[in-house]
DNA sequence: CCGAAGCCGTCCG
DNA sequence: ACGGCTTCGG
């Protein structure tokens, strides 16, 4: 469920994009929605226990559509129940049973249509159903993970770890979990999706004075969302997003907001709300997730003081599981609910890949028929690496003829992306290997491998072991009360804290970082993190970058390993922002403005790096990624207010103190610096002004106030001329066709257009998809703009 | 203006 | 189940 009203609120920064814009990327998929909708298609069968694989087809279909666009899907399934979620399970079970009875009796009377209405109400997506899909994913070498608990946290973790470039979901919670690139509303007919990027949160289009998130840290954003009501918390009647925004802006901390509401006396706040809030926040921050490299569970964000969670809290964010069990669950071999071996509810369904995946299919070195895959699996030690292995391709030849399999390419011209994809996969594979290596080290406690770049570090597994994290103020979770909050800067803001995902993971590609993480200490007094990137990182699809030859290797190179005093932890961080790595030389530590601009679409100009006179330079150059929105344009009012975000919190609790909320591989040293900075009250005003100006320019460029946006990609809806933009986009893609959107015109899924699995399940053929794509491309116009 | 409650469609052919 | 959309009440 997510946060009520959050998506509508963020409409101004939604960007409608065509799937081809994501070519070359790996996108994590919140598979729950697909399973649920797929189950809708066969509710009767499921409810009555008749075997069916329609829901599998539904999912696979989408998997193939993504693959058609050279997107590698990485499916993530929900796992076990989290105590944090209301224990409404029983109620639900009851309702389902009632619906079933009703449905059955209607069916007995021959009223099948009516019966279906009720069958639909008892559909429940189970891990065993997910397993049916997993069987196909394995056969087609599509990566997946069954989350130990909520898919949300697992998805966030994968993105932070740099294993995926974005997340496809319908759940607005992902934004609260701190994800950077979230994609909603996949429309398979028009092959489009709605993108919301954390980096756009600083856009002025959200409301110049009304709901602006400029300067808001992830932490503040999370508080706003939580105050308005979330799954893990009883809500305060009468407080929605807008009110939460207003109150938070005024009172800065959750406890102050609560106090104010109480004083006002109009609304009733649940008892112990603040405690509940703190606990709920921990679920967003520290929920347990599976680390595919370490092959065990870790917290989404390390807990501040190492293992500070008391038993109750630990259970609240998901109990730890034995690594061997965790691995079985993650790979689908054990049921995340019963913890017993996975039961195959439909053993006769044995998917075989009729044809190999597009990406690998034509590779000369790869056998075209799925057989090879089976082998691969058998031999490999299991695990996700298999999925990233595909490229037997000869070295990295950049220009591989795109021989794509079947139809994929014909006419479309996109094939050259195959190379990219391969490279991208190679990068991810490397990343995973790196993780696994670390794991090996950790396990053996050996000290490492050293060499190469990755350098070895003694890894030890997790950073979580390290006792102290510095900094962090950021995310600090919630707050204890402090009487007089210091106004000045906020530490908090800084970041949001996330710490590096797992200690061991490096997130390389993740772009972002917005803010918080930038390697450099940002100096923003205001501190916020996230936004910082807003402008700067306009999310470029990796694909666009891929063509750059340097790309493949780069990502892995620049990593700084840091060791804590106890030597146990390593933080790996990249020197540059992942996003643009491609453009820079690997070793480059500083990013300059010039780079930014060369995105494939040329349209965007990112201001990143612009040298802002001030701050950055002063600091020593740490290059900022982009215009740092933290200083935004704006409103002093806002700035000042926000600037004061709770510092209080931190000081009180040690735990809080260490919580580092930063998401990226953060360098501890930098963190310290950052802190110092934050404390430093003097920000050069001028510097701020200069930065603001830059940011403004950046936005102008990005949203095209007046400028020519060139190839214009879709613009955030609220920006002017959205409609026009859409039109031009449409024209650009398919000048000749202008098809009115007609939802009711499904593509012809005739038998002959469908692939038939050996077990008779079907799937759309690539040819059909191709056709479908061509026929629907013109429908971009159909996007429903909010109007 | 804001939030809450209620209704609708979801898939498929 | 869940978001989107509409309507209703403060
Ligand atoms: Mn959720």
Detailed description of the structure:
The structure is a single chain. By secondary structure, the chain is α/β, with parallel strands linked by helices. The chain has a domain at about 5-330: Rossmann fold, CATH 3.40.50. Helix content is about 35%, strand content about 5%. The strands form 4 sheets. A 7-stranded mixed beta sheet has the order 1-7-6-5-2-3-4, sandwiched between helices. Helix 4 crosses helix 7 (about 125-140). The protein is globular and about 60 Å long. Manganese (II) ion (MN) binds next to loops. Manganese (II) ion (MN) binds near residues 2 and 171. The chain binds a DNA duplex (13 and 10 nucleotides) through helix 2 and helix 11. Keywords: DNA damage, DNA repair, Hydrolase, Magnesium, Metal-binding, Nuclease, Nucleus. Its main location: nucleus. It is found in: Nucleus. One of its GO terms (biological process) is DNA repair. Its cofactor is Mg(2+).
Short description:
With 787 residues, this protein is of the alpha/beta class. It has 29 helices and 13 strands. The two termini are 24 Å apart.
Please give the structural blueprint.
Layout: H1 6-9, E1 15-18, E2 26-30, H2 31-40, H3 43-48, H4 54-68, E3 72-77, H5 89-108, H6 112-121, H7 127-139, E4 144-146, H8 151-160, E5 166-169, H9 173-176, E6 181-187, E7 192-197, H10 218-227, H11 241-251, H12 254-264, H13 273-286, E8 288-291, E9 296-299, H14 311-316, H15 323-331, H16 358-361, H17 371-379, H18 417-444, H19 532-536, H20 542-546, E10 559-563, E11 570-574, H21 593-596, H22 615-620, H23 636-643, H24 648-652, H25 654-658, H26 668-679, H27 685-703, H28 722-733, E12 754-756, E13 762-764, H29 766-776
Parallel strand pairs: 2-3, 2-5, 3-4, 5-6
Antiparallel strand pairs: 1-7, 6-7, 8-9, 10-11, 12-13
Bound molecules: manganese (II) ion.
The structure holds a DNA duplex (13 and 10 nucleotides).
């Amino acid at each position: 469920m997510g946060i009520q009203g959050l998506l509508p609120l963020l409409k101004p920064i939604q960007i409608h994009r065509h799937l081809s814009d994501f070519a070359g990327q790996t996108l994590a998929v919140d598979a729950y929605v697909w399973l649920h909708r797929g189950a809708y298609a066969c509710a009767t069968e499921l409810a009555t226990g008749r075997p069916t694989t329609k829901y599998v087809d539904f999912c696979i279909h989408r998997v193939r559509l993504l693959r058609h666009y050279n997107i590698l899907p990485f499916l993530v399934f929900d796992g076990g129940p989290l105590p944090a979620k209301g224990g409404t399970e029983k109620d639900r079970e009851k309702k389902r049973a009632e619906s079933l009875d009703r449905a059955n009796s209607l069916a007995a009377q021959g009223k099948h249509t009516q019966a279906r209405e009720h069958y639909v109400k008892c559909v429940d997506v189970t891990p065993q159903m997910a397993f049916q899909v997993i069987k196909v994913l394995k056969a087609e070498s599509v990566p997946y993970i069954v989350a130990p608990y909520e898919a949300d946290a697992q998805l966030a973790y994968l993105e932070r770890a740099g294993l995926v470039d974005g997340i496809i979901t319908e759940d607005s919670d992902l934004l609260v979990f701190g994800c950077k690139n979230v994609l909603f509303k996949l429309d398979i007919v028009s092959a489009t999706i709605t993108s919301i990027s954390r980096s756009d949160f600083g856009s002025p289009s959200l409301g110049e004075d009304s709901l602006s998130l400029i300067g808001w840290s992830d932490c503040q954003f999370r508080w706003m969302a939580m105050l308005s009501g979330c799954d893990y918390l009883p809500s305060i009647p009468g407080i929605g997003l807008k009110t939460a925004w207003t109150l938070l802006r005024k009172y800065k901390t959750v406890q102050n907001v609560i106090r104010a509401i109480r004083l006002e006396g109009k609304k009733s706040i649940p008892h112990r709300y603040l405690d509940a809030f703190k606990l709920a926040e921990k679920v967003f921050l520290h929920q347990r997730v599976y680390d595919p490299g370490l092959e065990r569970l870790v917290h989404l964000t390390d807990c501040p003081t190492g293992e500070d969670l008391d038993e109750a809290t630990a259970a609240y964010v998901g109990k730890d599981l034995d690594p061997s069990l965790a691995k079985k669950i993650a790979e689908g071999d054990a049921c995340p609910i019963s913890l017993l071996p996975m039961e195959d509810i439909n053993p006769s369904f044995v998917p075989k890949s009729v044809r190999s995946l597009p990406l690998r299919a034509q590779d000369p070195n790869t056998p075209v028929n799925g057989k090879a895959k089976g082998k691969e699996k058998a031999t490999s030690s299991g695990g996700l690496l298999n999925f990233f292995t595909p490229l037997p391709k000869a070295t990295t030849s950049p220009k591989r003829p795109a021989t794509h399999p079947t139809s994929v390419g014909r006419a479309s011209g996109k094939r050259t992306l195959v190379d990219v994809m391969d490279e991208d996969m190679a990068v991810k594979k490397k990343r995973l290997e790196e993780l696994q290596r670390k794991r090996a080290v950790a396990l053996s406690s050996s000290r490492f491998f050293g060499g190469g770049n990755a350098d070895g570090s003694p890894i030890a597994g997790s950073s979580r072991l390290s006792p102290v994290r510095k900094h962090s103020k950021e995310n600090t979770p919630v707050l204890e009360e402090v009487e007089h909050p210091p106004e000045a800067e906020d530490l908090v803001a800084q970041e949001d804290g996330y710490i590096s995902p797992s200690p061991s993971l490096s997130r390389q590609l993740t772009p972002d970082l917005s803010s918080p993480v930038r390697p450099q200490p940002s100096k923003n007094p205001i501190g916020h993190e996230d936004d910082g990137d807003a402008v700067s990182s306009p999310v470029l699809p990796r694909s666009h970058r891929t063509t750059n030859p340097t790309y493949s290797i780069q990502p892995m190179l620049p990593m700084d390993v840091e060791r804590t005093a106890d030597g146990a932890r390593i933080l790996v961080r990249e020197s540059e922002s992942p996003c643009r790595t491609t453009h820079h030389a690997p070793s480059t530590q500083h990013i300059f403005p010039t780079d930014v601009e060369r995105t494939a679409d040329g349209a965007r100009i990112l201001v990143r790096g612009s040298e802002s006179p001030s701050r950055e330079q002063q600091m020593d150059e740490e290059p900022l990624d982009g215009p740092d929105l933290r200083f935004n344009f704006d409103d002093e009012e806002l700035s000042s207010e926000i600037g004061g975000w709770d510092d209080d919190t931190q000081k009180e609790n040690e735990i809080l103190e260490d919580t580092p909320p930063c998401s990226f591989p953060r360098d501890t040293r930098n963190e310290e610096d950052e802190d110092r900075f934050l404390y430093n009250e003097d920000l050069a005003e001028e510097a701020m002004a200069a930065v603001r100006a830059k940011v403004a320019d950046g936005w102008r460029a990005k949203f095209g106030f007046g400028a020519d946006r060139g190839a214009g990609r879709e613009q955030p809806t609220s920006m002017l001329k959205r409609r026009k933009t859409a039109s031009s986009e449409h024209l650009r893609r398919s000048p000749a066709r202008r098809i009115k959107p007609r939802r009711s015109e499904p593509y012809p899924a005739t038998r002959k257009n469908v692939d038939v699995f050996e077990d008779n399940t079907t799937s759309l053929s690539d040819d059909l998809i191709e056709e479908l794509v061509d026929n629907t491309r013109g429908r971009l116009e159909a996007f429903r703009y909010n109007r």
